[in-house]
Amino acid sequence: MFSQIPSHVASKIRPNAVTGCWEWIGARDSRGYGNIRVQRRVRKAHRVLYELVKGSIPAGLECDHRCRVPWCVNPAHMEVVSHVENVQRGAARWVPGARQRAKRRCPHGHPYTKANTYIHPRSGGRWCRQCARERKVRHFGSALGAASPLASTVDLDVNGEPIGRTP
Known about the structure:
Elements: H1 7-10, E1 13-15, E2 22-24, E3 35-38, E4 41-44, H2 45-54, E5 61-65, E6 78-82, H3 83-89, H4 96-102, E7 117-119, E8 126-128, H5 129-140
């Protein structure tokens, strides 16, 4: 399995029989990607393993983890793609805009339909119209029957008599 990989590198790989990933047990960065020192330079372990097993990575391209496991160094789980493609495929937590656009319901469960969604013209942000209506009813009261806090107040004159009513 590791015939093309030097023993000092292979000793830092633990195969996972369930997922097929080759888990890097050496040094990792803060996001979980493996680091390895090659000729006095620190490089990403998955790139080094890809180059050892499959050949060089063309300039301007990146290794995309198809398994979505950052510490996986199995070259069979890598695909060489452009940066744009890698970002588009990336895990949602690294691509907040795509994650938001993929949502089909607001946090309160209302569907993001054309009729129920307001899209801000400049920012492109979107809001649920039903949530906005409910928020306004809670704050101001409804003009369609629910009494607002000020609806029951009556204007009084200086003597405390209601204004506009004849006795």
